[in-house]
From TrEMBL:
Family: Belongs to the peptidase M24B family.
InterPro entries referenced in this protein's UniProt entry, alphabetically: Creatinase/aminopeptidase-like, Pept_M24, Peptidase_M24B, Peptidase_M24B_aminopep-P_CS
Domain Peptidase M24 intervals: 162-392
Pfam families registered for this protein in UniProt: Peptidase_M24 (PF00557)
Gene Ontology MF term list: aminopeptidase activity; metal ion binding
Listed name of the protein: Xaa-Pro aminopeptidase
Length: 416
């Protein structure tokens, strides 16, 4: 949480963090500015001091609402910076950063930089800045590591934001089901009231409309994939594909608050009208593993242990797993869990990138998402189930919201 940042600065021997960029879809800055609108702003966190917000004059009202100590960029001689730099914007921005640091009394020490920025331009600016202030050591990833560690656990306001997104997600999932059931099956194809085929793209357009109505967005898109496409975990689905009866549909839905706030991640697998025995068996196995993983969650356990459990259970069922067959494209092919917050994927992790520090603690938020994938068999399919959970103050795993688990969505046959 934010209360940990100063301690972490001391532990990392870091004197300052500079967070830069837009206020939208920029998790490090959004963590502080919340829903305030900024085309460009910077938060400077100096060890043992309160954070300071630097902002553009046109966004002064937005800056006021943040409650931070604040300094307008117009406090510095912007015109002089461009005169001195002879139009070199990287040097002009470096001169501005030098003035910002001096205004805060920060003239020597280690500083780290992070935020959503164009890498090459920001690197060029920092190279100019290093020549201006060689007494400031530019650190590497320590700044974002500190922020990621602070974001590892969520406070009540963050949990409330994620819960609100979860409520939006399940409301839309229900609308998708209702829409599917309002149509008909004709010759194995889902058709509307006018007997026109229903496509995946039509459903995605409705999802986007409902998200806008409910105050959310999906910047990373929506996975609504069918049959062979469902057998490749992050295949988003073919918008032109007509929805067919009996094929598995993986609906993986991970929107966020408008402007890039908190996310929610959710997956259900459906078959329209009926499911084959093969898909039914895989679905029941995934449900079994999902239940087993949820029961195994407890404080102090690493998410890697949940991954080991998932692999063992699927292996005992006769499936290849990523643990036993690295790079496999059939069976169980991914990790079972990832953290979630201002990014749809953040710490704690459960896959090969996970560290021993990625442990379950009160306030952690993460997904549970086992799945099985067979994209190259005669009747290809994929099955995945996913919910986002949090650990309460007593160490218990809790759902933010719940949604039914059922494989088959019944749809009426069109009468001749």
């Amino acid at each position: 949480m934010k209360s940990e940042i100063n301690r972490l600065l001391h532990e990392k021997n870091l004197d300052a963090i500079v967070i830069s960029g837009s206020g939208s879809h920029n998790a490090p800055l959004k963590y502080f500015t919340k829903d305030a609108f900024f085309t460009h702003a910077q938060i400077v966190i100096i060890r043992d001091q309160d954070p300071v917000l630097f902002y553009r004059p046109m966004e002064r009202d937005n800056a006021e609402r943040t409650g931070f100590k604040k300094i307008c960029y117009d406090s510095f001689p912007q015109k002089d910076f461009y005169t001195i730099s002879k139009g070199n914007s990287n040097l002009a921005n470096a001169l501005e950063l030098q003035s910002m640091f001096r205004s805060l009394g920060f003239i020597k020490g280690r500083a780290a930089f992070c935020g959503q920025l164009e890498f090459g331009t920001h690197l060029a600016m920092l190279q100019e800045f290093q020549r201006l202030m060689p007494e400031i050591e530019i650190a590497g990833s320590e700044g974002i590591e500190i922020l990621n560690q602070a974001r590892f656990t969520k406070d009540e306001s963050e949990l409330a934001a994620i819960r609100k997104m979860g409520e939006i997600v399940v409301k839309i999932a229900g609308r998708v089901e209702q829409y599917i059931q309002s149509n008909y099956l004709k010759n194995g194809i889902l058709v509307d009231q006018n007997e026109l085929p229903v496509t995946i793209g039509m459903i995605k357009k409705s999802i986007n409309m409902w998200l806008t109505e409910l105050g959310a967005e999906n910047p990373n898109g929506t996975i609504f994939s069918m049959g062979r496409d469902a057998g490749v975990p992050h295949n988003e689905g073919n918008d032109d594909a007509v929805i067919e009866a009996g094929k598995s549909i993986v609906f993986d839905f991970f929107p966020c608050e408008t402007g890039g706030g908190y996310f929610y991640d959710f997956t259900r697998t459906w078959c329209i009208g009926y499911a084959s025995q093969e898909i039914e068996k895989a679905y029941e196995q995934v449900r079994f593993v999902d239940d087993a993983v949820l029961k195994d969650i407890c404080p102090g356990k690493s998410l890697k242990e949940l991954q080991h459990l998932t692999c063992r259970l699927f292996r005992e069922m006769g499936h290849q797993t990523i643990e036993d067959h690295p790079g496999t494209q059939e069976g169980y092919v991914h990790s079972v869990s990832h953290g979630l917050g201002l990014n749809v994927h953040e710490r704690p992790f459960s896959g090969i990138s996970a560290s021993d520090a990625d442990v379950i603690l009160p306030g952690t938020v993460f997904t549970v998402e086992p799945g099985l994938y067979y994209p190259e068999i005669e009747n290809p399919f994929g099955v995945r189930i996913e919910d986002t959970i949090y650990i309460d103050n007593d160490g218990n795993a809790q759902y933010f919201v719940q949604y039914p688990y059922h494989l088959v969505i019944p749809v009426k046959q069109l009468e001749k």
